[in-house]
Amino acid sequence: MEHVVIIGNGISGVTAARHIRKLSNKRITIFSVETDYFFSRTALMYVYMGHMKFEHTQPYENWFWAKNRIELKKGFVESIDYSSKKLSLSGGDQFTYDKLILAVGSKPNKFGWPGQNLKGVQGLYSKQDLDLMEENTSRHKVDRAVIVGGGLIGVEMAEMLHSRNISVSFFVREDRFWGNVLPLKEAAIVEEHLIKKGVDLRFNTELKEIISDENGRVKAVIASTGEELACQFVGLTTGVSPNIDFLKDSDLETEEGIVVNQFLETNQTDVYSIGDCAQFSKPLAGRKKIEQVWYTGRIMGETVAQTICGNKLAYKPGHWFNSAKFFDIEYQTYGCLNSMLQEDETNFYWEHKNGKMCMHFVFDKASRKFLGLNTLGIRIRHEVMDRHLDADATIDKVMEQLKDANFDPEFYRLYEDEIVAKFNQEQGTKITVKKRSWKRILGLG
Amino acid sequence: MKNLRNIGLVIFLGGFSIFITSLFVGTYKISEDKLKALYDATEEIDKGDTIAGSLTKTAIELHILDKEFSNQFSFSSHLSDLFNKSNAVIAESFAEKDGITANEVEKIYDLAIVDGKVIYSKDVVERVFFDNNKKQKLLIANTSWMFKESKSYEKVADFKKDFEKKLKGINGKLGEKYFVWDNKYSRFDLVKASSNGPITDNKGLFLFLTFGLCIIGTLMYILPGAILMGGPGIKNNGVYHDPATNRGWIGILAFLFLIFFYILLYFYPWLIVPWTSIVDPFKGLFIEGASASQWFLYGTLYTVSMCVMGIRMFIKYRHNRYQIVRTASVLSFQIIFAFLLVEILPLFDLPAMDLKNAWPLDYDMFFDWNVKGHFDSGTVGIFMFVWGVVLSVIVIPVMVYFYGKRWYCSWVCGCGGLAETLGDPYRQLSDKRLITWKIERWMIYGVFLFAIIMTIFSGYHSYNEVNYPEMSGKDVLFGMSAYNIREWYGFLIGSIFAGVIGTGFYPILGNRAWCRFGCPLAAYMGIVQRFKSRFRITTNGGQCISCGNCSTYCEQGIDVRAYAQKGQNIIRASCVGCGVCSAVCPRGVLNLENAPNTDGSRMEAPEVILGNEGLKEFLNK
Ligand SMILES: Cc1cc2nc3c(=O)[nH]c(=O)nc-3n(C[C@H](O)[C@H](O)[C@H](O)COP(=O)(O)OP(=O)(O)OC[C@H]3O[C@@H](n4cnc5c(N)ncnc54)[C@H](O)[C@@H]3O)c2cc1C
Ligand code: SF4
Ligand code: SF4
Known about the structure:
Chain A is of the alpha/beta class. Chain A has helices at 11-23, 44-48, 63-67, 127-139, 152-163, 184-196, 294-308, 382-390, 395-400, 402-405, 416-427, 438-442, and strands at residues 3-7, 27-32, 70-74, 77-81, 86-89, 94-96, 99-102, 106-108, 121-122, 144-148, 167-171, 200-202, 207-212, 218-223, 228-230, 233-236, 240-242, 258-260, 271-273, 278-280, 321-326, 329-335, 345-351, 358-364, 370-376.
């Protein structure tokens, strides 16, 4: 029986295992050094904040693995011999594989700041990081924390600390929050919200140095502005990068990540890589060479499972989508909406007067083809947007059927009429919004 | 703000301690006047006098008349004796006239047993009752078989056994209508009538010191939350760090208190007489000077808890209009239908019916006394009965078809209402394991079956009672007594499951243990919801990040995530549509909707989760 070995029990590795099991009878083994069972990394913050216990982050019950004949092994894979198809664990144990999937995920970036290894300084990626954060902030008194790096994990960490009444200073290198993704206006909404929550946002600010107290624990940081800030905790959330140190200097081709082709194959036969750690040699149009989100990890897992089970399949994700939450404000995005308008693009932006909700559409100037949508505070129906994008729908059609797209709970106030009225006014169009139609939404003929 | 909260907590704890302590305040003393007042209220004047007289006499014999007891525990320990002896006295006085008295039995034994030999005969009877033809005849008619040729007694004991059995038949029913049966109701009434002391003298003050302080304290604790918890939005911070909500010591204490309370309420109501005295003034608003029963106390506590904790819901979910509207709905139904109308209807000589309560949750709908009660109250009473049936048979399934069972469970129902308000802090404690789902199905459909069988039996029984009153008591079907089945159902399901376990276990099993494992109406509606309904929880394409918030906060223990992460809609028989999974989802994945495809297709898992274009194309090929 063919033996498929997967390193990494994150979403990509586990999805691959589940789908291989669905498609075949192959022997499957998953190695991980982090936890015994798969858990949802995205939920780590909720454990810290007391919304859930760690066990709640585990999407499958513990019996699931044996029942589906997926062997779980805990241990650190130290090296891989691709010619003899052998892996060695740090304890010395050796295993052979027929097919190998590298789904080793990421690790937090550290940019060589002085003091970055002091006690009380950490990133947030793994279960161990979560435990460390608990220890750093509850066993030691923390009044003030500094978070470096204005992205998603940074804002999550800010929310976590906020829930424990720790005041947060947030260093952001750019002139706005999540500047490489969010357009100015959305960023402004989020910023205002963060400030209202009491987060001390500092733009155009980088970390210069972290200063130690007599016990080797952080007591202050010095910012690029020269200011020194007393703090007892530093969160480093300046992005993540593939967790591939143990694979460097081997025959496997790596750059930033493990280099793969569109079939998720590495340069070694029978070795694949998926998830956060994979780097596409030729990225797909409009997408990044390394995709570090939950959904893409899952899609890569589904795809590689097909290939391994004999249906060679290229990685071909559909239209981009993503979502996040900034304290109380939910964010969703569909299609392609860059932080800056591209040359032939134009946009339409609506914001609620409460300053916490907005909808931002981008479309092609000439053809009026709808390209992408950002929303804050309004939930959008994925299927409807995906269908519009698939059909190259015009912005006018999207507007006309805007009520179909709303996914807010019942009794929520709806703003489609207001939004389209504004659109008509700005664009000189005469669109009337159609009533919500289940027929269209469900594609019922 | 924080201080206000702490003061609120102190006030609440103060009020609660007074409430608990009040149970041990006051003295108990029965007097002739009180007994008269208590039993004169019955319809027949001479009946009241007879009962009161006999009880007074017995109380004197037992040396408890006008004796002051310092608590209801020692006082009530005499009640069993009091009732039974008084009944015996009454029985004896009736036997004098129409039956055989103990004295007469002695005489018969004297003549019928000679030197350890039984020589019972017609002659014996005639000699004892030489001056009483009526009794002579009575005894002969009943015991002639005992002195026939064919019958002879070897042992005296056997004879006495047979004889006494027959005696019971003769004397048993005499005077029965004047008996005060020793049960929880008589005990409650007597203890209540006998209570004295600071509470009975200052009911209004105690109402304020207990209910008043608890309400004020809780509100002072809850209201600042609007600001302290930070702006509108899901705030479950610290739920699993808090010993009140993570099955910690506060949760255990709350659990013990609730269990203790329910057991007293259902089985030992006479011990909580002081609490009912506290709410007398409130009861007085409906009927002047009326005395509150334990059920009035319960209804008040229930409604007050729902209202106060409903305010908490309004604050906690103020960003979510679905939660606001449904909480307002469930509160209105409780206040108007379950509380006010139940108090008001009897003022118009109508049955105290909770008009929103549907069979089989309303399990006594077809009990003889209920049916009779309705039919005896004229057209409106009959209309109310018919409404109950229409509600259960037509309204319920039709509404479930259109909106899912949530229209009832989360918008109307009293049990659901308490669960969604008082119980909301405990919702995360429901067990999500697959095995629990299996147990759940066995239990809830088991109870449903039990309810159906019980209803058939009691319906048959009521039908007979109403149509053939002369056959009264003919309540046996398939060799089982309808009465017994009813009693068992009421005890096991109505009291133990719905009350003691259903609410008592909030801090352990989560707030919907009854709705999930026990409620037969939920089972009934669940079947409709599962197979033919427009309701579903839509999963939003591929947006789920498997975080687990939805599953954690599903009070029904549904592993919502298991569906959402597959891109599958959630349609579970048990879903009560509380909408909290949708509210807590940080990625906007879930939405409760009613839409046209009503069959299986609404719940199929997609072959490919939205987002994997390559796989979709491949599978379509
Ligand atoms: C706090 C946080 C919040 C996030 N929130 C979101 C979000 O909201 N939405 C979103 O789309 N994405 C989010 N992400 C990103 C998302 O979680 C990742 O993209 C995803 O988990 C990557 O999955 P993976 O399977 O590629 O790798 P991982 O989940 O990182 O799994 C890799 C596993 O491999 C193990 N491993 C590595 N090397 C070895 C070795 N040598 N031997 C044995 N085991 C090894 C690691 O210990 C790890 O357990 C978040 C990430 C973080 C950290
Ligand atoms: S809460 Fe939302 S994102 Fe989290 S598991 Fe449930 S559906 Fe998925
Ligand atoms: S599935 Fe959602 S709506 Fe249904 S009971 Fe659970 S939390 Fe409530």
